[in-house]
Amino acid sequence: MGAKSRRSKKPNLLSHTRLQNLQPLPPLSSRATRNVIRKHHTLHKQLSQAVAAKNGPLATSLQSQIDAAGGLSTYQHASILGQSATRGGDSSRILMEWLTPLLKGNLARVTTQSHEKLRLLEVGALSVENACSCSGYFDVERIDLHSQHADILEQDFMKRQIPGTELLQDEGFDVVSLSLVLNYVGDAKERGDMLRRVGSFLRMKRDIERAEDWRKGTENALPALFLVLPAPCVLNSRYLDEETLERIVINEGYELVQKKLSKKLVYYLWRYKGTEEIQQESFRRVELRPGGARNNFSIVMR
Fold first, then answer.
1. Which of 90, 91, 142, 231 has its C-alpha lying 20 to 30 A from 34's C-alpha?
2. Per-residue pLDDT, 147
3. How many Å apart are CA 211 and CA 270, to the nearest integer?
4. What is the pTM of this model?
5. Phi, psi angles (nearest 5°) of residue 268
């Protein structure tokens, strides 16, 4: 029998790899946590670009650098520390600050009719003990590409089956959270695809029987997208500013309900109204703010 021909392996994108043999990781200082996250994002973006350009040697080198820095396990460890309550990093606290005044009157009702609790899909979940999980208002479904907890389903949001109209009542959601998720996607067009996909999972009043009985007071906020990005993605990008981001999301059938800007993060709550009455536009990558100190974050809608 002749020798088998060997094919060079195409380097995997980090989003296609799996964690194995997770071990407890040492504590990190706040500065070290930020450095790990920043370095990982930079290398991951460069890796995505190298794979897209079919530059195998560069992709292999970048993957080696990611592995040498501790790989995804170290990055997720740093992310969990950064989002811990002790460091004030739980972004869902902002979501609950916005929603709690609307939901207070409904708490008794939803806790006695648990099958009618509000449903929340948390994409890129790292913790099962964040503010939205502990609020009592939600049945939370958590997914992540590389789950580190039994209550977080290991799933790619872009491959999750979209529920048909007849299934939205049971399988749709009232809130979809993309907290520090969109910025992890390496390609601008794929970011646009992810943003567009969210609306397919949001259930509107017309999709739910007796919606008026338990959603009272939330009509101006739900169903909603909770979007969190690193502040530089919006405030210091060549290709994306606040106005452009708002135009993109409004073009997907949303209206802005709340927003909060900080030095590190930007938070948005968008109510979904549907796209039936919208003539949707495409958004290309266009330079808005020149300058050498800018980053290249963008969202492209096809």
1. 142
2. 86
3. 19
4. 0.75
5. -140, 140
For residue 215, count other CB atoms closer than 10 A to its CB.
21
DSSP 202: B
Question: What CA–CA distance (Å, rounded) separates 241 from 269?
Answer: 17
Helix axes 56-68, 30-52, angle to 10 degrees: 160
Residue reference for tokens 């290398």: 43
pLDDT score recorded for residue 153: 96
Which residues have C-beta within 8 Å of that of residue 278, sequence separation ≥ 6?
251, 253
Do the bridges between strand 265-272 and strand 254-261 make them parallel or antiparallel, or are there none, so unpaired? antiparallel
Whole-angstrom distance, CA of residue 106 vs CA of residue 109: 5
Enumerate residue ranges in the chain where pLDDT < 50.
1-25, 84-88, 111-115
Distances, alpha carbon 298 to alpha carbons 207, 253, 263, in Å: 33, 19, 19
Q: Scanning the structure block, which residue is given the tokens 């920043």?
A: 38
How far is it, in rounded angstroms, from Cα 188 to Cα 301? 8
Nearest Cα to Cα of residue 71 among 31, 128, 23, 10: 23
- Strands 175-179 and 118-123, by their bridges, are parallel
**Which one-letter DSSP state was computed for residue 293?**
T
Encode pLDDT of 268-284 as tens digits: 999 999 998 888 899 99
Strands (E), the chain: 118-123, 138-144, 153-154, 175-179, 224-230, 254-261, 265-272
Amino acid identity, position 95: L
Contact 243, 195 (CB under 8 A): no
